[in-house]
Amino acid sequence: MSIGNVSDFEPGQILRALEAHHVRYVVIGAIAAVAAGAPILTTDLDVTPARSHENLERLVLALRDLDAKLRSASAPDGVPFPIEAEMLASAESWTLTTRAGDLDLMFLPAGTQGYDDLRRGASRERIAGVTVTVAALADVIRSKEAANREKDSMQLPILRRTLEQTRERGHEQPGLER
Amino acid sequence: MVSGDLLREARLRAGLTQAELAQRAGTARSQVSRYERAEVLPSLETLRRLIRFCGLDLSFRLFNADLEEHDATLIAQLLPLTPEERVERAVRAIKHVYAA
Q1: What is the model's pLDDT at position A73?
Q2: Which residues from chain B sit within 8 angstroms of residue A40, using beta carbons?
């Protein structure tokens, strides 16, 4: 997908590729917030994969299937890079574009301790035909608070409001290990 | 977000256990737990003090009440849907926005 070509954004295809290769990850960010009921929009999928070597090897296979490239404003079709476990392990985050849309890998989202931390409060949800692990809205808020980016700050009031209304209705998920 | 959520968020962001925060604040772990579970509502000053022991501070902002009401209505419309339906709807909406 060319950068900015939102018409190709199919988060379900990305999730199916990750599931097909048994990648361990948690869906975070805006898609997790949307799944929880937040009325926000996004053009990318953010996930936090587990950092074990075995999992990175599985992630490599999924990223190759998705024809993942580095996202770059100066290269609309993305920049090819060697998709290897060692390469993925060398950075805290990867901003990618794939044939099914933009994908951000964030091994250590701000304000969290990564996969194991986020998985504790996460729930298993069906999205686009696959059952995936989705971060708790409270944890999405925690991370966006810590990131302290302007775009996150603008979303925080509506995310907090969503959490409040979810709790008022008793809809909040208990979490996998909380 | 209620005070218990704020306190828990601050504590987790600081990487502290309830016991560690209680020790810093000179209170009992059980009291921190009660605050986080909203069994006891701390005063604003107590909440701010505990959050400061996490190396953070509280800030306050005022928002237009009409916008908040609008947001609440949107959320109320989405909550009866399944997560899958919410995501499908959001993806359709963003494509529509960009296609327009």
Answers
A1: 75
A2: 90
